[in-house]
Structures are given as C-alpha cells and as structure tokens.
C-alpha cells in the first residue's frame, strides 16, 4: 500500500513559572516516528539546559504542545528521565496557549538548577494518523494514504533541509536556533504491506454469579479495515486474486486466547452463528486458542462486527480477604495484547445481586466510570453494574481492573427461597381453588338429591 504524508513537524514550546529573565533551552531534540505498528508511536528525546543568567530559582516543569488535529487521535502519552528511567508526571493543562495546540505539563522529579542539564523522553501514541488518498480503490489495487513516514520510501520533501534518507529511515535535521512553536510541513510517499485496521467499538460484558460459581463473558467487537473505500467489487476478480494468493488490503482472520476451562464458547455476528472458527489447545500458554475467521473477507474500507463469549469458573478470578471481609474480582479488559487501536472501549462488570460496599481500582485511566442498577433473569432487587469507558486506547495499554465488594452467602438462599415461596403460593392457590370447586360441587349435589327426594 502506498502512503503520502502531510504532517506538522512540532517543536516544543517552553514555559517557565515565576521566572522573568531565566531561559530554558532545548539544547538537543531527537524525534523518532515509528509506523511499523498499526498505530504510530512518536518518541521525542529532549536535552534541557538551564541558561539562568542572573536568575537562580529552580525549574520544576516543562511545557510542550501537540497540534490539536493530531491530539484528537492521541491514545497515550508518557514522559520519563532518560538517564534513570524514572517516570515523570504528565498532565493536560486546562488553560491553553493557542487554539491550534494542546499544552501538556511535565513535572520534573528533581528541580533543574542553573547551568545544569536534564534529558527527558516523551512518548505519544496515536490511534489513527493517516487517511486514504485516494478515497476509493478497485479490488487488488494499491492503497495510497496521507500519513507519517514508514518503510519503503518512494519520495519525500526536500525541505526543511537538511534531509537525508537511508533505506527505510528518513532523517530531518539537525536544526538549530528554532523559535518556540515553530512548525514546518513535511510529506513522504511510501509503501507498507500491513493492512491498516482499527477496532471502532469494543465492549466486554462480564457477569459474576456466586450461585453457579462462574462468570459469563461476552465481547462485542466492530472491526474496521481502515483502507480506502472499495469500488467496483466483483466475485470474478476476488476469486482470481484468491486463487493466485495475491489478494491485497484484506483481513482474513485472527486469534483469541480464552481460559483453559472455558465452556459454552460461541462466535456470532448479526446473521447468527459463524461456523468458520476452530478451538484448539494453545502451544504458547496454558489456554485455549480460538481461531476466528469472518463470514466474509474484510476488504478495504469494510466493517465486520461480531460477538465472542464463553463461561468460565469464578475461582480463577475471585479471591476472598478475611481481614476486610471483601471479595476481590480481577477482570481482564481484553483477551490478547494485540497491536490494534480501539476507538471506543467499554468494560461492563455486573456484580451478583446483593453486593454492597463496592470499590474499584482500574489500572488504566478510564475517561468515565458509571455505576447503574440492572435487573436480570430472576432478579428481584437489581444487580450493580460498573461501566468503565475510554476513548483512543489499545489492548496493550489496558491493564487489569480490580473490583472489591461485600457479599453475604445468605444471598445465595434468597432466590431459591423466593422461588420456592412463589411456587408454594401457586400450589396453595390451586389447592384452595380446587377445594372451593369441590365444595361448590358438593353443595350442588346435595341440593339436587334433596330435590329428587321431594
């Protein structure tokens, strides 16, 4: 597939709090853009130098900017010291210096003092950093994109100079004496074999049952082949390319790991059960390998939505803490750490009916957390459901979620008792009705006998 880049080369702006004559200098900046994955990673290494002049106050934060257009697809951003590897606290500023940029603040663990240097690294990961160009192609044609640099470079901008090319690497710079917030457009034309794809919507629903000692899990996935829109599709060209093994820009299948004790496994789409799947023992880990194939090949620009679910033993995920008298449930937000971005992610955990004193501790920064009450099958008072939502993320960046709650074992008897009382009530009602009918028939028979004697 061909790609064309039209991006903005961003240089970071500096903000110094409560200093008037001090100057924080970016003495060296190296920016690496990796497009080998389906979502690009932008790594910037910066050497900060405190050219104080007459000022001696230490510097505690570093401010940099990201273009607002690129920021819409930002998945994750982190900062660390290069020498020690220690993480640096990074946060988005509420007040922005420009409409076209989004400012972030990096808090320095050790204040930078006059005439000292500090090397930091900032890593930004983006969900989608390109768009099809042209917007549509025919079957088996090469796809062009407007994107960032990658392998097999065909052509590229010769400015701002200096620019050098070596195999699959482009080097812009070095540049000196760059003003704050200075930008320069660059374009690159290149080829990439990997099919660009993203998960537009993913929702994992987990239901906990103490009564059956199991969990029910259902994953809804909407997969998008993020290539140009396919036009003039016909089966002749498709089968010809399939036989020749030359079909381009197509997703034919993927693998999902499920627990070894998983049962009642299903794989469905909007039509119904999808039979093009296979379950086997995984050779890599102690789990089952579910090999999924779509009902039809997901070609360039096409979508495919499906559900995968199973039932597993609750003991694999639940522990009881006698000191706090709480249960701790460990939920895995995704089956496999695949290298694919997720535009809209949602994790729903339904607790058993009667759970209370609920706490949760997600290991990822959820955009929102909502607790609702949901009535299910044979539910009388409703079960608590916790919903974690996040935009622009990936499975490799979402860690486990821990939910702690209290639950009385007497709740296990509640449903059987209520059901038994309900059935007994029905039995009693029919018994009383039968007795009443028998009594009416007996009175009627007595009256008929008395009339016949007269």
TrEMBL record:
This protein's GO CC annotations: oligosaccharyltransferase complex
BP GO terms, sorted: protein N-linked glycosylation via asparagine
Keyword S-adenosyl-L-methionine listed: no
Topology in membrane: Single-pass type I membrane protein
Signal sequence extent: 1-22
Pathway membership: Protein modification; protein glycosylation
Localization terms from the record: Endoplasmic reticulum membrane
Name assigned to this protein: Dolichyl-diphosphooligosaccharide--protein glycosyltransferase subunit 1
Membrane-spanning intervals of the chain: 417-439
Role noted for this protein: Subunit of the oligosaccharyl transferase (OST) complex that catalyzes the initial transfer of a defined glycan (Glc(3)Man(9)GlcNAc(2) in eukaryotes) from the lipid carrier dolichol-pyrophosphate to an asparagine residue within an Asn-X-Ser/Thr consensus motif in nascent polypeptide chains, the first step in protein N-glycosylation. N-glycosylation occurs cotranslationally and the complex associates with the Sec61 complex at the channel-forming translocon complex that mediates protein translocation across the endoplasmic reticulum (ER). All subunits are required for a maximal enzyme activity.
InterPro entries tied to this protein: Ribophorin_I
